[in-house]
Amino acid sequence: MNIKRTGTEHPEPVVRYRFHTREIGEFDIHYRALRDRNQYDDDSGETEALGIPPASWPLYGVVWQAGEVLAKLMSHYDIDSRRILEVGCGVGLASLVLNKRHADITATDIHPGACRNLQYNTELNQDPDIPFLRCAWKDPRDEKTGLFDLIIASDVLFEPGQAIALAKFIELYAKPRCEVLLTDAGRGYGNHFTREMKARGYEQTRLETIAPITNPEKYKGRIQRYRRS
Questions:
Q1: Which CATH number covers residue 19?
Q2: Is the dihedral of CA 157, 139, 197, 145 positive or negative?
Q3: For labeling, which of 34, 178, 182, 211 is most exposed (least CB within 10 Å)?
Q4: Domain span holding position 112
Q5: Count of domains in the chain?
Q6: Please, what's the b/e burial string for 52-71 (b: 16 or more CB within 10 A of its CB; e: otherwise)?
Q7: pTM
Q8: pLDDT tens per residue, range 175-218
Q9: What is the rounded CA–CA span in Å between residue 144 and residue 173?
């Protein structure tokens, strides 16, 4: 972690960022991300007060391979006039792409820094604000947020129990007829999530993989689609 020193005061953390421009579909997407996973910012103590484990504090601020895949998919996916929710948005790459397409996109994440980052990146692209909901998957439904036709997420299943928690969260915000897209990095909990979704009336199919932006090799994870009609 980088620090700065101010006279005789205690060292204070300095968060370091990197700026990127990615060509995703027909769009140039500009975004700020943490320089690496050793960076974090919780001067106010808000993140700690929310009970978020310190080891996961930087995770919202970097772009993962599955996030790149989801962003590429959203650059050409048939969104029609559907309301879309990105779960665990982090930097918000997929949301930024959808915003360029004038989609009705809302983003959500448990980390308060995700909201600040998303707002900064939206302004960086000179686009309209993206509505943001800060919440945990166990929280009750925010009635003002409403329900969605399409719910998307990338690499959000990396701990035991998250498959059930995510399925329950989706149920809170999904319309009776809903589609869910998950770019799964293959951390071992995807099949459990599929069982949970099927129990809730969804049919599951697998889409063709997409080569990520930063790696010429084919994406080794899976793109899962769940539909309930």
A1: 3.40.50.150
A2: negative
A3: 211
A4: 3-228
A5: 1
A6: beeeebbbbbbbbbbbbbbb
A7: 0.86
A8: 999 999 999 988 888 999 999 999 999 999 999 989 888 887 87
A9: 11
